[in-house]
Predict the 3D structure of the following.
Amino acid sequence: MEADPIGVATGNHYIDGDHACAEGAIAAGCRFFAGYPITPSTEVAERIAERFPKVGGLFIQMEDELASMAAIIGAAWSGSKAMTVTSGPGFSLMMENLGLATMLETPCVLVNVQRGGPSTGLPTLTGQADMMQARWGSHGDYEIIALSPNSPQECFDLTVTAFNLAETWRVPVLFMMDECVGHMTEKVVIPEAKRLHVVPRKYYRGKKESYRPFSFNGSAKTAPMVKTGDGYFIHVTGLTHDERGYPVINAETQDKNVRHLVNKIRDNEEKIRLLEEDGVADADVIVIAYGISSRVALKAVNDARNKGIKVGTLRLITVWPFPEKRIRELAATTKAFVVPEINMGQIALEVERASRGRAKTLLVPHAGGWVHNPNDILKAIEEGAA
Amino acid sequence: MDIRFSGFGGQGIIKSGTLIGKAASLYDNKYATLTQSFGPEARGGACSAQVVIDESPVLYPYIVAPEILVTMSQEAYEKFIADLVPGGILLTDKDLVKPEKIRRDVKMYSIPATRIAEEMGNRIFANVVMVGFFTAITGTVSPEAVKKALPGSVPDRFVDINVKAFEKGYHYGLDLLGETIAAADSEPAKVT
């Protein structure tokens, strides 16, 4: 379906990633925002607060991040496309209710503009150290979708994608920006509304008595939702539940409930995945990167190619679900993977696991506060090719 | 082209960088990436904006050694002057920056941007006067592009006066270049 023109700021802009993310959300039809300001994500909230009154949206500055996450779950069940925005310390506080959102299969978007951590760390400087928290931050078994943009343009484009994925799979989608991309200003082209693909909420319109808010059919389609005010009586709970949404506390129901949460994403990884590959077919070394690191890595890749090294690139646009199968395929034909990331080794662990010893994994860590020196990545490429 | 604008918070340093980046990427058909750094203070602290302008997409977003350095405060000058590449261009606010040791390996151009802005009625325009000066001296962006970049970047009712501030800085720069060229032309005559 086409986007609602009222929310689409069509034209060429010179804006930063945070502002572009806000525009992407509004273009995707987000009309509810609850958040608690935190550097370096505040500009997203700021722009939404300014723009929402003009598009009929509701912006609430909450008392904290726990409440913010809870509010967007409620808003989603009342029929809104909803989003919250935060950074590391707030992300930690959102983890409990992120679990609730996965359990209730609630479509919503949680933006984390990553800064250096742990704790309050580096408020104004970049980091990519929340990637594993994105995957495993809430308790229990679940799967999640996480996207990682590498430019302000992608902050717009992929925020629209994030909302579309949330609706398609009825899952909270994590938008894992980093401070560098969030605070970087570049040209952002916002297309006309009719050229933007937006996935609308799927609603149930049938008989009241036969409605089921959940459908545990494994990897197939998720159940349509209803919204408050439509006259359906429904019950949703964080407790293990059946397809009617009522708690059933036994191993059999747990098995159905959890397998569905996991398999709807795991079995559809290839449909969800967004990767960018270049020159991987005959590469001796493949650089795997995401976010700002994927751009800085290209500089090293160009230098390596000038030295005659056969190096390819694989950019993770969706970091979760992890493209395990693709990495395994590539591990059979390449000598080494080089993984630069602004943390002390997170996605590199997944690459190493997925490659199952068929190719070496060389981590290029960075503790945060700045991007990699491309020469450090180049050294690892040379080591991998040797 | 790696450019650093620097000064103290409240001078419109980030805005200067934004105007140049916007002009280059939206109206001069180039790629321009802006990053910024500032202290926790809202005003008064050291502040700088970095712009990378290129014919192809910018991969490395930060600046280590700029080819052009614009300084609008003494503190910023002292902090950043050492990083300017040899042969680079240094632009300063004549009244606010007093270089103690002048680097002989860079080309320095000065304009009393803040004084010119005050004469126009408000020192708030000093950054745009400097942007005009920058445009004339460096030729990195076209003056038409910067003038197109002003609407939407400053409040609507102040667009006209900002265009005037830009013109003042731009013509000051052109005049200064004219004098420099004239001086250079006259040099051989002195020798003979």
